[in-house]
Design brief:
This protein has a single domain, classed as Glutaredoxin (3-Layer(aba) Sandwich). Helices cover 44% and strands 13% of the residues. The strands form two sheets. A five-stranded mixed sheet has the order 2-7-6-3-4, sandwiched between helices. A two-stranded antiparallel sheet has the order 1-5. A hairpin with a 3-residue loop joins strand 6 and strand 7.
């Protein structure tokens, strides 16, 4: 077991009163090399996915405010590149606290502005390696402006009702998945990697890859 995992602080007031509970279902499994209830858990049906991409999805619930997510980011990138055709990797920002809400808003603004791919790892490096003070919306807007993003447009999208609605939807799905910390990997809305049982972050990725390949095969998805 390793300590990598930022525990949640329920953040509901600014997002319409939603709350989080950790609720999961462990069922027996004879599959090798990983077993249900140990390295992963099967989530309660009906299963709910993050997107309608039409492919098996591996979702990382994360935050730019989480140093464990910063450490996991290079591993997650290798995982993304290792996924077979028919499997897609997605990021889901976790607004678990008032302190983390700006990071979640920034994620969706960067995504809508088309700069997420080139700024994702840069933001982690700026915050945790270069120790820039990046915590507030203003500080995040300054960071993206340094990356060539229109600052006013970034703020408008980040603070928009549409972004707030996405965050409320994310919180509801996080609750359904029983996610209680970051980083956490969820596969196709069906399985959650048991991060607390992992010996390393690489093992997290290995379990997720194995589950994604199994789900792809079992469902005949291409």
């Amino acid at each position: 077991m390793f300590k990598r995992f930022a525990r949640i602080h329920v953040f509901a007031m600014l997002l319409g009163g939603l709350s989080l509970t950790a609720a999961c279902s462990a069922q027996s499994s004879a599959d090798a090399p990983y077993t249900n209830g140990n390295e992963y858990v099967t989530l309660p049906a009906p299963h709910q996915r993050f997107s309608n991409a039409g492919k098996v999805e591996v979702v990382e619930v994360f935050s730019y405010g989480c140093i464990h997510c910063a450490h996991f980011a290079p591993v997650a990138e290798k995982l993304r590149k290792a996924l077979p055709a028919g499997v897609v990797f997605k990021l889901m920002p976790a607004p678990f606290s008032a302190a983390w809400l700006p990071f979640a808003r920034a994620f969706y603004a960067a995504q809508q502005l088309g700069v997420l791919d080139r700024t994702h790892l840069k933001l982690f490096r700026a915050k945790f390696d270069q120790h820039y003070p990046i915590n507030s919306m203003d500080e995040l807007a300054d960071f993206y402006a340094r990356q060539g993003v229109d600052r006013a447009k970034f703020m408008r999208i980040a603070m928009s009702p549409e972004t707030t609605a996405k965050l409320k939807s994310d919180l509801a799905l996080i609750q359904k998945w029983g996610v209680d910390g970051t980083p956490t990997l969820v596969i196709d809305g069906k399985y959650r990697v048991q991060t607390s049982a992992m010996r390393s972050q690489q093992e997290m990725a290995d379990v997720a890859l194995w589950l994604a390949k199994r789900d792809l095969k079992d469902n005949g998805k291409r």
